[in-house]
From TrEMBL:
Component of the TIM23 complex, at least composed of TIM23, TIM17, TIM50 and TIM21. The keyword Protein transport applies. Residues 14-27 have a biased composition (Polar residues). This is Mitochondrial import inner membrane translocase subunit TIM23. It comes from Wickerhamomyces anomalus (strain ATCC 58044 / CBS 1984 / NCYC 433 / NRRL Y-366-8).
Length: 213
């Protein structure tokens, strides 16, 4: 009935065995101490550095898990920026393209707002006109670019997984499919135009990477 009320005898360790790690860490047997002051007053009797949570790190780290830092080993996947897999490409690619679209759209809206300022208008109206154009163009282009980049990276990583390698053909095909999906609700002609534009953008990106590599 020992399994109901406690551990079995096989799991029990002798008290002397349990005390050995404590003795090794403290340098003495705590059960044999009756006067703490004698230990404190004895030079070298108690090494307080052994009680610190970070004690012993000067000996070096014996084991370090670097599993999360392993880079992507897929053939052809080593690009300009080190990547651990498709999740890194998805996050970095989508975020970078979104910020780029947001900046370009905001810049376009800024100059558009300057051109559309009403004549002889007060300063507040001028500022409001420019801000309206910036907030109209910036988020629109940023969101559009972000959705395209998100779709592209998902399709590209799927093709990479199916083919077992990454190359320019994968990127161009992912661009064409992403563009077609993005404008699929507008009809065949808009979907075809978007597909061609995205395929051309993917090919240009592959050429730039090959040039900088």
């Amino acid at each position: 009935m020992s399994w109901l009320f406690g551990s079995s005898k096989k799991d029990e360790q002798p008290q002397s065995t349990q005390q050995q790690p404590i003795n090794n860490n403290l340098g003495f047997d705590p059960n044999s101490i009756t006067d703490v002051s004698s230990i404190i007053s004895t030079p070298g009797g108690l090494d307080t550095s052994r009680l610190h949570p970070l004690a012993g790190l000067e000996k070096g780290v014996e084991y370090l898990d670097l599993e999360d830092e392993n880079l992507n080993t897929l053939e052809g996947a080593q690009g300009l920026i080190p990547s651990r897999g498709w999740t890194d490409d998805l996050c970095y690619g989508t975020g970078a393209v979104y910020l780029l679209g947001l900046g370009l759209g905001g810049s376009y809206g800024f100059f558009e707002g300057l051109k559309n300022i009403p004549a002889n208008s007060p300063g507040k109206l001028k500022l409001n006109t420019v801000l309206n154009h910036v907030t109209k163009r910036g988020p629109f282009l940023g969101n559009t670019a972000g959705v395209l980049a998100l779709t592209y990276n998902l399709v590209d990583s799927t093709i990479d997984g199916v083919r077992g390698k990454h190359d320019a053909l994968n990127s161009v095909a992912a661009g064409a499919i992403s563009g077609a999906l993005f404008k699929s609700t507008k009809g065949l002609k808009p979907a075809g135009i978007a597909s061609g534009l995205m395929a051309g953008a993917a090919a240009a990106w592959c050429g730039l990477k090959a040039l900088l590599a």
